[in-house]
Amino acid sequence: MNDLDAPGAGVAGAQSTSGLTAESTIGEWLDDPVGGKIFRSILSESGQQESVLQPVRGITLAKLASLSNGQMTDAMVADMVGKAQSRTLQTGSGVAEVSHPESAVSAPQSWVEQVTPGRFAGKTVIVTGAGSGIGKATASRIVREGGRVIAVDVSAERLSTFRDEYHEYTIETVAGDIREESLIKEACDHAGPVIDCLANIAGIMDNFTPLHEMTDEVWERVMAVNLEGMMRLSRAVLPVMLNQGYGSIVNVGSEATLKGSVAGVAYTTSKHAVAGLSKSMAFMYGPHGIRTNVVAPGGVTTNIEAHFASQMGSERVNKILSSMPAMAQAEQLAGLITYLLSDDSANINGAIIPSDGGWSVQ
Ligand SMILES: NC(=O)c1ccc[n+]([C@@H]2O[C@H](COP(=O)([O-])OP(=O)(O)OC[C@H]3O[C@@H](n4cnc5c(N)ncnc54)[C@H](O)[C@@H]3O)[C@@H](O)[C@H]2O)c1
């Protein structure tokens, strides 16, 4: 039992009530005397440091719950809100002092996506991972800018939701695993004889294991999805682009393309390999009018799943994750990816561009 659950808590010596809701940001929760106490007690029960919340201070409690892959249930959120709204902070009666962490430097919350009408008019673009997160934000931006998207994802359900949400636009969905040659053929067949752009975005995390604890299964799965799928689809698309004499490819890497300290060995290796694959593609095909660039996201609020399976990995990586700037929105990544896919970036080839709020310079 924590002191907020204690009988009588918040009755005597009450001084302030909280107006926190599920739509309040994590920063608002942490900075509120009552909300902060509730949050810190949950963190301490699960053995976690408050620093893990630093990058998500700008998102709402409801959003955090939706991103938690079931770890934070609706019932938990309702319970937190109920406690925050009904309880008050005791003062002067032995209740521990509430500490106020320094606020993180947050990305401007007022950022609004600006669509460039017609930028992809008449263009066919293959987008992988289009059912969720960065891939969905990218695919949606392209269709709203006049393009035709071949949306690829392993989740047929997510693809169908995406198509329903944007039913007035030209979207063809291809459901299947990027590791399968049959899916790659199907995506290229759907695209047809001209493929203007390819966005290789589908990817998965590892489980933060260092090499001596990593299993073959994790290595093979992560390398197959993050690297081999990207390689196979690019290999299938390149003859089309060579034939037409132009094309733009964006491969999504990660902060783990730049650092060894933000994931386990499998993810880090796969995302470093994305840089090598992309540099070779940029070098070989640049003279043929085909540009290849890498986007390296820092933390982004998406549905990507990440579970710590190693104490060593958790201890090492969590220290670094606590220095991560505020998480970005998937649409902010889509802004950079669509810029690199479009003719706006005509002179950029072989670049690895972080979109991480400056994390990579720390
Ligand atoms: N979210 C982050 O903080 C972050 C940070 C750095 C890099 N990235 C990279 O961004 C990319 C997109 O991730 P996201 O954060 O949007 O995650 P996400 O989970 O929200 O979206 C990824 C999509 O890829 C699909 N996918 C997964 N495996 C697939 C497979 N084998 N075949 C086809 N589709 C598959 C998933 O179904 C999902 O819809 C990934 O490459 C990821 O490594 C994400």
Summarize the model shown.
This protein has 362 residues and is an alpha/beta fold. Strand 4 (148-153), helix 6 (156-165) and strand 5 form a beta-alpha-beta unit. The chain is built from eleven helices and eleven strands.
Q: Please, could you describe this protein's structure?
A:
With 362 residues, the protein is an alpha/beta fold. It has two domains: 17-90; 124-361, 3-Layer(aba) Sandwich (Rossmann fold), CATH 3.40.50. The chain has helices at 26-31, 33-45, 61-67, 74-86, 133-144, 156-165, 181-191, 216-244, 265-285, 311-321, 330-341, and strands spanning 14-17, 88-90, 124-128, 148-153, 171-175, 197-200, 247-252, 290-297, 300-301, 328-329, 352-355. The protein has a seven-stranded parallel sheet with strand order 5-4-3-6-7-8-11, with helices on both faces. A two-stranded antiparallel ribbon has the order 1-2. The longest helix has 29 residues, at 216-244. The model is unreliable at 1-16 and 89-107 (pLDDT under 50). Bound molecules: nicotinamide-adenine-dinucleotide. The site of nicotinamide-adenine-dinucleotide has 28 residues, from helix 5.
